[in-house]
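$ ./design --mode recover --in tokens.txt
reading tokens...
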């Protein structure tokens, strides 16, 4: 996720020049100095810029569903995270670090939920690819070693998606040297459990209800069979 740097905290010659002008303007009553947020220059998280069109995943995910999902739900998590970070020393950290540092803080539940949902959704957008992709190379070897076959892995992903009670996520992860399929509830994330996420499927109702109503299995199967970006999964394998 990109950050948009705010320019009100300046450094070096630009700082002193601006300070001189600012002091003169304050003395003359033109305006008051605005301070920097705690922890230095503030920055704003920007939503992930999609590499594909929002109708490119049709007919499996409709443009209408995608626009609501990306433009309302995801944007809402990004906006709320920025709002909760305002003035916080955590604001300078990468989103992943914010998620990790707030995961067990009882007074940071809202920040964790929104930051983790922003992270999970960016990972989900990257887990999708119009036309899909086939696993190969080292990833396919690991799939065969861990699950026996790609079809077995696909079955486990579907089962995990259906077994997740309520909102959550199904994931392909690397744990140690073994691939696993896991599910997490609400905003939870495998990074918080010592696992490396490779792919994810959003199984919150907002991800599919407009297109599939209560048929979560049909939605998940459509993604597994047609949209999973196995190139992204392969790129997430740690380099040996
Ligand atoms: Fe979602």
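writing sequence...
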């Amino acid at each position: 996720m990109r950050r948009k740097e705010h320019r009100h905290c300046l450094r070096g010659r630009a700082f002193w020049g601006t300070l001189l002008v600012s002091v003169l303007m304050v003395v003359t009553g033109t305006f008051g100095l605005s301070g920097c947020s705690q922890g230095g220059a503030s920055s704003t998280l920007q939503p992930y810029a999609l590499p594909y069109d929002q109708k490119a995943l049709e007919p499996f995910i409709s443009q209408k569903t995608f626009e609501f999902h990306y433009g309302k739900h995801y944007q809402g998590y990004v906006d709320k995270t920025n709002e909760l970070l305002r003035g916080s020393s955590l604001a300078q950290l990468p989103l992943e670090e914010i998620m990790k540092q707030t995961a067990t803080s009882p007074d940071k539940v809202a920040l964790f939920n929104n930051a983790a949902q922003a992270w999970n959704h960016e990972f989900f957008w990257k887990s999708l690819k119009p036309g899909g992709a086939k696993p190969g190379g080292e990833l396919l070897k690991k799939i065969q070693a861990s699950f026996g076959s790609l079809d077995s892995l696909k079955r486990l992903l579907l089962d995990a998606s259906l077994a997740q009670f309520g909102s959550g996520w199904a994931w392909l992860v690397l744990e140690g040297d073994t691939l696993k399929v896991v599910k997490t509830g609400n905003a939870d994330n495998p990074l918080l459990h010592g696992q490396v996420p490779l792919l994810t499927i959003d199984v919150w109702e907002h991800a599919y209800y407009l297109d599939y109503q209560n048929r979560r299995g049909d939605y998940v199967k459509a993604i597994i069979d047609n949209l999973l970006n196995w190139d992204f999964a392969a790129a997430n394998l740690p380099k040996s």
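exit 0
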